[in-house]
Specification:
Length: about 375
Amino acid sequence: MSLTVLVGTYNLNQRLLEKDLTKWLFSPTTQSLQEKPDIIAIGFQEFNEYPNAFLNISNKNRIKHCEEKIEKAILNYTNEQYFKISSSIFNGLALVIYVRNEEIKNEIKSKEVERVGVGPIWAGNKGAIVARLNINDTISVCFICSHLAPHSHNVVERNKNFKSIIERVIFINKSTIYDNDYVFLFGDLNYRIEIKPENKEHLMNLLNTNKYQTVIEWDQLNIEKRKGQAFNGFQEGEINFPPTYKYYVGSTEFNSSKRIPGWCDRILYFSSRIESIKLNNYTSNNDYITSDHKPVSALFTINYESLDYYNNNNKIDFFTNYNFKIDKWRFMKKVVGNFVIKIFGLLWMLFWTKWTKIIVALTGIFIGWYFIYS
């Protein structure tokens, strides 16, 4: 049997989605393949305004808005009504998963969702939503929507973020992320192009002439992957699209005044039986201008008939081979991180938003009233 899987990721920069998502989710190449995905997994970063996202204020309304746009795009392209099987929120992250029909829905025997905060003191301003599907007790498919540490100099921190996600997500059956048959890791991974400031003009010339394969050699993610520092065992398709960050909002023009453009938004995939998965399309779309990021999508085919030829002895134990260790403090970190992000959100609301003005105004009114009438 085979399944077609569509994965999409978009950092919304705290803004609402555009009206029509069809061009993003179903690119011309995908449409030319005439494929109707069996599973669709869409991840968002910064999908709600801060600090509202940290305090779960209007998160449900925001995710409902996203779902409506996704479902309309699916209907426009497939002329079919897909089934939503999972909708998860974690501060500024959101992950929504759909399946094509009731037959596939019924084949999903179990579903698990984990959330991991990797920000300061394990706060969830950065982190991941991890959803695992057990399909027909035959294969497990794992989706990881991530948002890692920002800024060009934080390469080591991003590597640590990845390691923390791998070590802190343990499923009910005591399995790890690497124990799944198929893993899709996507989101704003925040890796940048590693160049010296004096070479910025040369970089922009290369990008403006679409010489992406030259520039990708300076990509931090690929450099760290080659060094074995992160994303061990994960694959990525060839990048033939412009960097996805940073753009002027409302434009397709790079905002390179302070930031060097980079492929922050990525889709990676892993399988210990890598020959049973095929990447059909990997692209971005510059037509979407609401955010300072551009959305990315990828279409895969997984053929799990071939899994009958394998047994557990044939599977490579990536978790052990790369010296990952189950984090015995993961529960404590989760509790502390959830507490920290709420406190952070409250402080932000009190001191860095319009609420500050309201509180100051009310305080002034109260003090004035006190002195006038006391």
